[in-house]
Structures are given as C-alpha cells and as structure tokens.
Amino acid sequence: MAPHPQRLTVTRRAWTLARPFTTARGTETAADVVVAEISDVESRGRGEAVPLRRYGESMDSVVAALDAMKGAVFSGLNRDTLQSALPPGAARNALDCAFWDIDAKRAYRSVAELAGLGAVTPVVTAFTLAFDTPERMGEMAAANRTRPLLRLELGGDGDVERVRAVRHAAPAACLIVDANESWNEHQLEESMPALVDSRVQLIEQPLPADADDALVQLQLPIPLCADESCRSLADLDRLDGKYQAINIKLDKTGGLTEALALAAEAKLRRLRIIVGGATGTSLGAAPALLVAQQAEIVDLDGPSRLAFDRGARLRYDGSTIHPPDPNLWGGPTG
Fold first, then answer.
1. For 258-270, how does the pLDDT look when each residue is reduced to its tens digit (9 = 90+)?
2. Can you give the residue ranges of every domain in the chain?
3. In the chain, which end has fewer C-beta atoms inside a 10 angstrom radius, N or C?
C-alpha cells in the first residue's frame, strides 16, 4: 500500500510542432500526449504517453483506460500490480512512469537508483529526416550533415533514391533507415545493393509485422531491426532468425518496467538494442533515457521537433541529450 491515499489525475494536450513531420503513415502538425499524475499529500509523480494509432489507440481510448484505473490507484495499485492490470500500450506507460516518478520522490532517490542502474549519462541521439521527396530529404541531410547519426523515414517507391540523396548530402554520417512496414520481400532484396553502396548500417521493420516470416529465408548483409514486430517480452521468441536488433519504445511496451525487462532479455539473446519513441515532450522521453544507457542506437529526438517544450525539459546539445532535471521526472526535488 502507498503511505497515503493516492489520487490519479489524467490530462490531455496537443503540443504544436515547429514544422509538420511526415512519415509513411501520415503527417503530424502536433504531438498529442496524455499525462497521468499520481499524487498524495506529500508527493506527486507524472508519466506521459503518446497513443499509437498503429495499435488501435487514440487519445480517447487512452484517457478512458486511465480514467478506469482511478479507483484502483486510490485503493493502493502500485507499479508491480499495474503490470497485470493493464495490457502493454500507452495507458500503462503513462501510469507506470508516474509510479516510478512518485516512488523515487517518496524514497528521496533517483529512478535509476531504484531500478538498480548506474547514473544516467548523456547519450547521442539520431536525427530523424522526415519522409519527403529525395530532393527535400537531401536538403535536410545537407543542413544536418555534421550530425553523427541520421535516421531516414522511408515509405516504399523511391526509397533507394531517397537514401542516395541523403548519402550524397551527408557523406560522413552514419545512416539507418525505417521502412515502416512498407516493403515486400522483393523490394527488400532488390534494394539491398544500393543500400549497401550507400553504407546503410541498419534497416528497421522492412516488412509488415504479420508478413515477416519471409525474413527467415533471407541472408542479408545489413542487420534488420524489429519495431512493430516487437512490442513486449512475449514477442521475442518469434523474432528468432528474422532480426538482429529490436527497437524498444515505452509506449509499445507499456512503460519503463517492461522496457527494462525487455532490454535485459534482449541482451541475453544477443540482440542489439535501439531505443526509440514517438513525438512527444521531454516528460515522455526522459524515462527512455534509462533504457538508452544500454542501447547501441538511441532515437529520442522527438521533443526537439516541438515548437515549445515543457518548462523543465531535456537539454539537447546538438545530437547529445543530457540527463533530466529531477523537476521534470525521475528523482527527488528540492
């Protein structure tokens, strides 16, 4: 039981982006986020989530799922019992991260300490190039050519030309690409020589999640990363022989608790770890920085796409993300 009766407050807000951001799934002009706040007479903890349309979530469905948990939170729901009270997804992520935050503040310790992790240190994030024409993506790559890691949003026809344009504009950058489930087996094999020639280091989710059994038969020179094919621990067994890496996103896993467990099991299976996230505020990205400490690739540039972020925010120094201020999330405050 919590030391005092707990109250859950649920809020929703759209945060305007500095410029529209396009992927193969559509164009965003704002980041729609839901915040769960747990409070008692002494402490409060917050967690932010972004509903994932790919999994049938909406702002309304996530808010409704969280509203339905208010009685359980008041009655003493905690981080452990939450894991079976809600399925993986954005609602559980918001509540799980809020529990971590308030637990840290109650204990006067950081979340990293509570999780048995070392100190959170700065990480280098990928800079994501929105899906566009090859010419426009090349222009954006040229403007960011000094960044160490560029991630390309792809979407089907013309993708080889997009990659070539970016490579020409940013000859020294490490390139990774996200096909967003938009290719078929033939496109993947046909594109491979050009992707090798462009020195692409990783291909994320080339085939639809329900059609990725075809990957077992392929011997490809570029590693593949499961995104939509890997939501939680329960998915790992079916990835064998298909992927060499997984992309861990807290909105998919249903929170930091499951994300840390997924990362630990992935390491045991010798899977490379990428940590990503949807476009949201620093409050949503901050918990992912704990998982990012053990990731090979970090893709947490979402907050940098906002026109305005929260008052207490993550500090981006070029492509480097610095640890969160406890006033934002994750530790005791003064």
1. 999 999 999 999 9
2. 7-108, 123-321
3. C
